[in-house]
Structure formats: structure tokens, C-alpha cells
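To the wet lab folks,

You asked to see what we're planning to order before we commit. Fair enough. Below is the target structure as C-alpha cells, and below that is the sequence we designed to fit it. If anything looks off to you, flag it before the synthesis order goes out.
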């Protein structure tokens, strides 16, 4: 995303997510339950305007205003209003910057979340595993999660989104295993996103013993898609 200004719509201490991924740089959900205070739309708008104003005065370049934070940003109940405020402030202060959302795609079926995601420049939606059983190993979803339902919800984007996938080994999961990579490729073909981002471990993980994949191995795994003309960003 270039020079990115991050927005955390979740508690300032700890983590709030409906996934508990074995590789999450924020740690386990159980380690961050002492804070459940979510910033309001008004708080985010005020803080963001102050930051954009100061960055503009100091000549700091901003390529992307990025919703990420310590967990799943779309869980904030005022997510849609915050996106609208962010777009207005972006237009006023940094009109050339993109607005990006990093999401696990679990809430994309909610009308207000979907409509907000359609407004941003870069909706980056995650699918790490092609089945519920495999997602239980790598993402450890909290509550109801159905991969096929997520895929169906993402079809409504009509390809105008970025699909993000973590490649790793460990915890009983292997992104390179035929039962993972084959069905995942089928999902990519079905969704036809405008771009695919595949990446691997780069920071400490809560589960020990996980292994990263090399850039060469990841490129080999996605070669069928590259040969078919898919735009794929590979981060080793």
C-alpha cells in the first residue's frame, strides 16, 4: 500500500476478532480481553482529521488510509459511518490517497458492511482455506463460519476486490497440500478478483512451530493462475 496511515477501529489494548488465527501478529484472542472499548465514529473522525491535517502541514506523503487494527475492523458497529467520514476527509486532505480495508470477509454479507466496502478503493478480503475443516485449523473462527457462504458473498463484488491469502505450514495445516491449494485455486477462478495477494509469515506468531513458504514455492503453487493471466502479488 506504499506509505500507509493505519486506523484501528478496535480496542486500543488487546485484540477483538471473530478469527483466532494461528499466525496472527496480535496474538491470541484470549490474551487481549481486558479492553472492550470501541472508538466511536466521532472519535475516529476527530483523530483522523487531526492526523491528516498535521501530516499535510509537515509534507508527509500518504498513499493509503488503511483500516486494519488489532482484529477485524468491520466488527465496529459504526464501520459504515466511519468509512463515509474517512472518504470525505481523504478527499479534503489527500485526494490521491487510496482507502483500504483489510478484512477476513466474515461480515461481507451484511448489507451495510458490503455497501461500505464497495465504496473504498481497496477492499482486501481474506480466504486462507477452502473448506470449513481447514479453516478451523488455520483461522480458528469464533462462532458460525462457512467458507462457501463467504465465497458467495464475495461474488457480489463482481471481481472488484483483492483476495488475500496466507501461505504457511504447521498446526496440522499446509497451504501447499493438494487438498488446500487445488480447491483454493478453484475459488480464485470462481471469484476472479482484480488482484490476489499471497504472503507468508513475517512476524512472531502465537502458535509455535509454524513454517513460512519461500517466494519461489509460492510462485510455483500459484503458477496455474499466473498462466491464466491473474494478477498476483507474492510476498516472501
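Sequence we intend to order:
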Amino acid at each position: 500500500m506504499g506509505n500507509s496511515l493505519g486506523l484501528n477501529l478496535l480496542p486500543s489494548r488487546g485484540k477483538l476478532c471473530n478469527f483466532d488465527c494461528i499466525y496472527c501478529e496480535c496474538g491470541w484472542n484470549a490474551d487481549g480481553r481486558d479492553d472492550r472499548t470501541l472508538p466511536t465514529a466521532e472519535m475516529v473522525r476527530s483523530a483522523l482529521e487531526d492526523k491528516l491535517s498535521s501530516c499535510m502541514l509537515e509534507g508527509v506523503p500518504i498513499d493509503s488510509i488503511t483500516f486494519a487494527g488489532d482484529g477485524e475492523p468491520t466488527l465496529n458497529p459504526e464501520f459504515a459511518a466511519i468509512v463515509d467520514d474517512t472518504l470525505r476527509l481523504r478527499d479534503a486532505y489527500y485526494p490521491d490517497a487510496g482507502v483500504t480495508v483489510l478484512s477476513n470477509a466474515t461480515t461481507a454479507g451484511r448489507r451495510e458492511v458490503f455497501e461500505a466496502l464497495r465504496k473504498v478503493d481497496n477492499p482486501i478480503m481474506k480466504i486462507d482455506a477452502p473448506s470449513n475443516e481447514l479453516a478451523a485449523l488455520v483461522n480458528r473462527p469464533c462462532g458460525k463460519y462457512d467458507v462457501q457462504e463467504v465465497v458467495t458473498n464475495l461474488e457480489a463484488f463482481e471481481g472488484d476486490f483483492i483476495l488475500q491469502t496466507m501461505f504457511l505450514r504447521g498446526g496440522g495445516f499446509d497451504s501447499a497440500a493438494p487438498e488446500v491449494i487445488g480447491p483454493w485455486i478453484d475459488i480464485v477462478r470462481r471469484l476472479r478478483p482484480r488482484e490476489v495477494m499471497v504472503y507468508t509469515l513475517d512476524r512472531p506468531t502465537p502458535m509455535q512451530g509454524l513454517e513460512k513458504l519461500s517466494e519461489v514455492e509460492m510462485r510455483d503453487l500459484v503458477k496455474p493462475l499466473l498462466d491464466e493471466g491473474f494478477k498476483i502479488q507474492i510476498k516472501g
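Structural context that might help your review: Residues 168 and 183 are 16 Å apart (CA to CA). The helical segments are 41-58, 79-93, 111-119, 132-138, 147-155, 178-191, 215-221, 223-227.

Thanks,
Computational group
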